[in-house]
Fold this protein.
Amino acid sequence: MNFLLLQPDEVDEDGLATLHGRRARHLAQVLRAERGQRLRCGLLDGMLGEAVVEAITPTTATVRASFTRPATPVHDVLLLAAPRPKVLLRMLAHAAALGFARVMLFRSWRVDKTWLQSRAFDPDLQRAQLVLGLEQAGRTRLPEVLRFDRFKPLVEDALPTLALPAQRFVAHPAAHNSTRTLGPLRGPFALALGPDGGFLPYEIEQLQSAGFCPITMGAHAQRTETALAALWGQLDLMRGRATFGKE
Amino acid sequence: MNFLLLQPDEVDEDGLATLHGRRARHLAQVLRAERGQRLRCGLLDGMLGEAVVEAITPTTATVRASFTRPATPVHDVLLLAAPRPKVLLRMLAHAAALGFARVMLFRSWRVDKTWLQSRAFDPDLQRAQLVLGLEQAGRTRLPEVLRFDRFKPLVEDALPTLALPAQRFVAHPAAHNSTRTLGPLRGPFALALGPDGGFLPYEIEQLQSAGFCPITMGAHAQRTETALAALWGQLDLMRGRATFGKE
């Protein structure tokens, strides 16, 4: 935590916030913060700014925060076939840190049914992971997490009606299109990742009908967790570079 | 495991291998393999090919393997400030799956000294994780893992004498150079990743003297695990695309 994320109801009208628990202990014991020290901070779902430590003990900290700069807006959407519970919780933190605005968790054929009943679907546990990801990356926008227990309602009912970015990709090691031959991107994208065994051909077809272009990073299939960061890196790079040559 | 990785001493001169333990159980119980079934396979540090199941019980499997194609050669090098033990073991699997030929683990200022005494430095545990990564990605070359308990001997003695790729990058959120403005890459690269709190300015200077160019993916710092996959994705993309426009 190099970045202090504050919740709106913690901050009074003078910008004062008194912290207990994890963040206070981290400030006192890891960062060894002292009175007068300045920290980068942000307001959950709000702006970025700076906090000054006004008082500190080993277990409580009082800071005065001011929020002066807008946070980077986020619009990307992650569609994620529910991985096993421990991996799901980690991936929620990754997704928040990478700047996804929405995570749509779903069950596809190769997703173990019991995983959707696991504690990794506890909203409080999910939120805690999302907050850790935001703190890591110095972001403030809490991703919205949606859940679809069946694949068909997701592709037939939800995808056509939800506002999703027009640029849509589904990771598919057997895809014909490689990220090496994609043209430049503009603005937000939606990225769908299957379970570790991959999507069924039928599921890929359904996602294609919903506008998702199957893409591969190459011949070597990666775990979902690695694929998320690597594909995000590639798509974000193609969006960020000013120009690309033609292949 | 969609890919059966065999060790040279398991395979007799007729290509027959009898498996017990994890791989046999996976074939029998997860893949429900039957006699006659064909699987992709590879020989550790060797070629790729196909294996045919000759006999199978719930706990043993006999396969006949033939190795006919060379594996993708790997030459990239990862320099990794030792993360906490659980993360290190996961990252070794990621590194093997992404195709690093060598992983140089080291201690920098912000690495907890006790982590280098942890079980994550047990060579057998490390090897097991590397093998899992190879199986995931259908690769065969076992990465070499080197260990440097002090930073200075690494940069002053090892880096100048070891054969390292000429293209060298160090991940540094505060870097002036962004991956968005890098030119195209050719061939292998070395990538250095610091601990979660980052490198000290002095350490960055030392790495720069050893030919490492500090680069950033943007304003949002990621966990080491996410940074590894995202940066690999970006560098591999820049190497794989035929051309890039000028910025």
